[in-house]
Amino acid sequence: MDKALITKIELHKLSVPLKEPFIISLGPIYSADNVVVVVHTEAGIAGWENVARL
Question: What is the pLDDT of residues 34-53, one digit of tens each?
Answer without folding.
Answer: 999 999 999 999 999 998 87
